[in-house]
Each structure stands twice: as C-alpha cells, then as structure tokens.
C-alpha cells in the first residue's frame, strides 16, 4: 500500500513539474513580446512578468522537479525495478528514463533562458520560444506512452509515431505563425 502512495505522490509532482514547464515558456514569449511596447508599458510588463516567472520557477517548477526525482527514485527502488531495468522486459523503462534525463536537460535550458530574461537579455524571438515551448509536450507524450503501453509497442513503431507527432506539432506552430502574421496586417 505504501508503494502505491509513493507512486501517486510521484505522479502528482510530475504533473506540477510539467505544468511549470508548460507555462514558463509562455511567460518568456509574453515577456519577449513586451519589448515591442512603448517604454513605460514595456517596463511595467517586464516587472510583472519577472515576478510571475520567479514565483512559478522557484515556487512550483524547481521544487516539483526535485520532488519528482526523489519520489521517482523511491518508486524505482521500492517497486523492485532495478534488477529488471537492463532486461528485455524492462527496456521500456530504460528508454523512459532516457527521456526523463532529456527532460531534466530541457528543464535546465529553461532555467538558462529564465536567468537571461530576468537579467534583461532576450536572445530568442517569440517564434523560437513558441517552438521551444512544445518540447515539453513531446517529452510528455513520449514518457506517458512508454509508461502506459510499455513493451506492447515496438520500438520502431513508437519512434515512427513520435516523429509523426513532432512533425504535426511543428506544423501547427508554423500554421499559427502564418495566421498571426496574417491577422496583424491592416
């Protein structure tokens, strides 16, 4: 029974961590687009977004990332997954953990952008940030699919499905850009 509670708590922190990683790039986009406003409005928006970003990043996202790691490790340990990890039946978990490691790398990349924007450095356009915003979605789909279907899906078909999903997602971002630009014209 304790294992089920550990697993539930782990999932709760995974969800809150993803929530932070989904919303933070949106704040980056809005903060970047504030640069197009007149000076007084621009400064007010930057100040407000800085407060929002700090609260989200340090109050929700970072704590959730740390607690996800702690509770995920406990779930692996108490679930007896260690010995299975490098066997054929545990290969799905090994691939999932690789995606989780990449997700932490993505988390650190967001932290870098956060530090830049807090310092007033805007290296990326709002369109680049929109694309970067979708990376968390790709990780979410890959990790959830691996956790639910496990070894029921072949590696090749899983990879093909993921690539198709990425192409569809990036196409949607491109279409959104075209629609936005079209609506900006007088």
Describe the model:
- The chain has about 190 residues and is an all-alpha fold.
- The protein is built from 6 helices and no strands.
- The chain has helices at about 1-35, 40-80, 90-120, 125-135, 135-150, 155-185.
- α3 (about 90-120) runs antiparallel to α5 (about 135-150).
- It is flat and about 60 Å long.
- The termini are far apart.
- The model has no long low-confidence stretch (mean pLDDT about 90).
Radius of gyration: 19 Å
Q: What is the helical fraction, as a range of percent? A: over 70%
Our measurement of the CA-to-CA distance between the termini, rounded to an integer number of angstroms, reads 62 Å
Structural class label = mainly alpha
Elements, N to C (H/E): HHHHHH
Topology:
Elements lengths: L1 H32 L5 H40 L12 H28 L7 H8 L1 H15 L5 H30 L2
Helix pairs in contact: 1-2, 1-3, 1-4, 2-3, 3-5, 5-6
Features of this protein?
186 residues, mainly alpha
Concise synopsis of the structure shown:
The model has no long low-confidence stretch (mean pLDDT 91). The chain has helices at residues 2-33, 39-78, 91-118, 126-133, 135-149, 155-184.
């Amino acid at each position: 029974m304790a294992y089920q509670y550990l697993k539930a708590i782990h999932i709760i922190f995974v969800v809150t961590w993803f929530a932070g990683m989904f919303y933070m790039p949106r704040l980056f986009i809005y903060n970047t687009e504030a640069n197009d406003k007149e000076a007084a409005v621009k400064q007010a928006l930057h100040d407000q977004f800085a407060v929002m970003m700090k609260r989200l990043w340090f109050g929700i996202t970072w704590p959730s990332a740390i607690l996800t790691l702690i509770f995920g490790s406990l779930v692996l340990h108490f679930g007896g997954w260690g010995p299975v990890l490098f066997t054929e039946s545990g290969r799905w978990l090994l691939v999932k953990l690789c995606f989780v490691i990449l997700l932490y790398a993505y988390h650190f990349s967001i932290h870098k952008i956060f530090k830049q924007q807090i310092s007033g450095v805007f290296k990326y356009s709002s369109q680049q940030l929109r694309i970067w915003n979708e990376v968390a979605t790709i990780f979410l789909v890959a990790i959830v699919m691996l956790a639910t279907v496990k070894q029921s899906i072949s590696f090749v078909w899983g990879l093909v499905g993921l690539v198709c999903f990425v192409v569809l997602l990036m196409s949607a971002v491109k279409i959104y850009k075209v629609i936005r630009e079209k609506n900006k014209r007088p």
